[in-house]
Amino acid sequence: MPVKNRLAEMHDQITEWRRDLHAHPELMYDLPRTSAFVAEKLRAFGCDEVVEGIGRSGVVGVIRGRSDNTGRAVGLRADMDALPVEEASGLPYTSKTPGRMHACGHDGHTAMLLGAAQYLAETRNFDGSAVVIFQPAEEGGAGGKAMVDDGLMDRFGIDEVYGMHNMPGIPVGQFAIRPGPMMAATDDFDITITGIGGHAAKPHKCIDPVLAASHVVIALQSIAARSVDPLKQVVVSVCSFRTESDATNVIPQTVRLRGTVRTMEEDVRDLAETRLKALVENTAAAYGATAAIDYQRGYPVTENDPDRAAFAAEVARAVAGGVEDTAPLMGGEDFSYMLNARPGAYIFLGNGDTAAVHHPAYNFDDAAIPYGCSWFAELVERRLPAA
User: Fold this and answer.
1) Among residues 261, 243, 242, 241, which one has the least CA distance to residue 251?
2) How many degrees, rounded to 5, is the angle at CA 142 between CA 140 and CA 147?
3) CB neighbours (10 Å) of residue 245?
4) Model pLDDT, residue 239
């Protein structure tokens, strides 16, 4: 079965929505135009219920099928927020807001779910309810958690939930998925190494925090190399190394290190945090310095329910024919909070040979729209077959 004919007919219209959203990116929870755009469309489609303000600025639409013998509801989620990136795509619909762009394709996700919502509202060829979820603040703000904490699952009676993300490097018209862990837990650390500053010509009168911090950076690599089973995934990256002085003749008082830890399993996550703290404190002490560590746990592992992942792959094969197995990715995704609240699955949609997500030249490929829309719609019709 190819993409749905009605959604192929709507391709130009959905593309127009996507490009309008692309030109007007908004960040995190501050999505007044985007949320209003979504809510207006859902009401125009004739959704049975449209609720704004879930998780601060999320929007939820409920579409009831021709019958409701089972009382079941399937949730479909798209993220709406953009990134604080200066666009360099050169497109005619480029961002109109300096320093902001849809560099991750959330404009495409939102437009595709709107297209699926219009189709489902027109046809209603299912038994139960389709709940379309438009989420804020995926990019670091845990909008998925905010919506769950705001009662999303219970309020709308959602039994299972599905999400999708475009993926450059996978051909348009293909999908990729795996059961179990799909994307990593994302933890952050902020370390301050304190010594005794002074003149660079008299290091013996100082306790050099730069030296101590440099050895900390190297020591942290032993977590992956020597502390964790080599068959398990862990990434420890120090991404920022700063002192309070830019002078060439001053040994500073403090050095600040910031970075991230990525893991796929809770026991590895616990071990990485424990080892990081011990290595930082003891390495700093070895050089006479002290260390203060702020370790923050972020998004949990995005883990697909095996049965739902198999079902999502079955739907993808029906829509497009091509479904790849994918290795786990060490990027993070706050759809994990929804999967922790209800069983479901998360799938990648091919975006073709484009710039990587989060790159200033990235652009969502509009040729992928009918496949993504059809996957959302077919998933509902198969999961909630009409009586």
Assistant:
1) 243
2) 150
3) 13
4) 97
254-294 pLDDT, tens per residue? 999 999 999 999 999 999 999 999 999 999 999 999 999 99
Q: What is the mean pLDDT of residues 180-196?
A: 97
CA-CA distance, 28 to 132, in Å (whole number)? 19
Residue 83 to residues 21, 25, 238, Cα–Cα distance (Å): 13, 8, 22
Residue with token string 């799909």: 182
Asked whether 151 and 273 are in contact (CB, 8 A), the reply is: no
Single-letter code of the amino acid located at 177: I
Residue whose tokens read 């010509």: 201
**27-32-36-39 Cα dihedral, nearest 10 degrees:** 60
Residue pLDDT, tens place only, 17-26: 999 999 999 9
Find the distance separating the first CA and the last CA of the chain, reported in whole Å. 22
Q: How far apart are CA 200 and CA 287, in angstroms?
A: 17
Rounded Cα distance between 228 and 264, Å, is 12
Q: Which residue has the tokens 């290190």?
A: 257
**C-alpha distance from residue 265 to each of 116, 181, 270 (Å):** 34, 8, 9
